[in-house]
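Notes from the 1:1 (GR / supervisor)

We went over the backlog. Supervisor wanted to see one worked example end to end before approving the batch request, so GR pasted a single chain during the call. The sequence is below; no edits were made to it. Supervisor asked that the structure be written out right there so they could see what the output format looks like.
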Amino acid sequence: MSTERKPEFFAGKGIHIGIIGCGYVGLPLALRFADVGQRVTGFDLDQSKVDKLNTGESYIQHIPAARIREHVQAKHFDATADFTRLRQMDAVLICVPTPLDERREPDLSYVEQTARAIAPNLQRNQLIILESTTYPGTTEELVLPILEKGGLRCPIVADQSAQNTATDFYLAFSPEREDPGNKQYGLAQIPKVVGGINPPSGRAAAGLYAQIVSRVVPVSSTRAAEMVKLLENIFRCVNIALVNELKQLCLRMGLDVWEIIDSAATKPFGFMPFYPGPGLGGHCIPVDPYYLSWKAREYDFSTRFIELAGEINTEMPYHVVNAVAAALNDRQKSIKGSKILLLGVAYKKDVDDLRESPSLKLLELLAARGADIDYNDPYFPALFKMRHYDFSNKRSVELSPANLARYDCVLIATDHSSYDYEAIVRNARLVVDTRHATHGVTQGREKVVSC
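Structure output shown during the call:
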């Protein structure tokens, strides 16, 4: 490592960057730094991931293996499970999960464990950046005290005019804004919000990220940067809850909510379209409102509006199951004993990402109601044991005309582009569509129920 560690150092070349967590956030970030010529080491406890990366293999659908292989061969990128190698890094970026526990409260165990892994390896003048989504105060209240246990100090200074704050190491927060499968906005095009524990930390982090993104947006503190991320996703959560509630009202009123949203979206100002679905998925939107609500209680503040949105979105899988039961009932069938095929287990179309997918809840609820439930998803030939679910006995069913015809109901939960919706409607006995995926199908409309 270089001995020079002023904030300006991190805007230069020849920096060795460690990224902890080689998943949907960490791996694209690592490859982006490698793209600009920096040397990157990915850290992960999963040895199988480490082995695949070091041989140039990809385990994420939208990241080509050729891109990983190119950087491995050029010695711009390698991976390891040996956390003592953190001592060799100039900068360390933390990209680990921040899920909810069984009580829907923040589970920061991955962040805490990672901070404890860094602490004995922390070097003077290193830059540490937390990217994991969390509540305001996490970097200051959880990460900083753990890192300072070895004797090095990073003083909290809120005054951004204090440019010459003495600091032994740099600490910042910069929320990830990764959107898997988004072909319009990749990591390089998305501005990066950065907040430091003190002004030098903020400048160091801003200089590092300026090398890989179109724009860096400095904010006054790590707490401000943490709140920015929550606002972004709570904004989406609340608006999705609004259209999910309107969808249920429109169904009772005999109105097409999709027509209404699309028509409202023609207004060139003051309106942004959001679309209903079977529930929220992904690693942020279903989680973030609960992180803020939990933290708000520390200040004797009730986030009633946000909590209501969370409740509405959480109820959507139950609404879908009731709609399936009603549709079967209209055909003189009980949901108990019915054969149901769920289309799509990914949390959104055209990605190989199961995190917080509402489809998993649908599988659980339908099975609990006595349905004989199968699934199809081109991105998941088999399911496995997860944090809250175990569907390791299930494999994707082939979408042949004969297979479609043998199910009492086909439930569209994820609208993958590869699905032939005309063929699905033509061969299925009943289709319950939660994604407006069959809107262009004209033949067999009598078999389609929107919900």
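Supervisor's comment: The longest helix spans residues 222-253.
Batch request approved.
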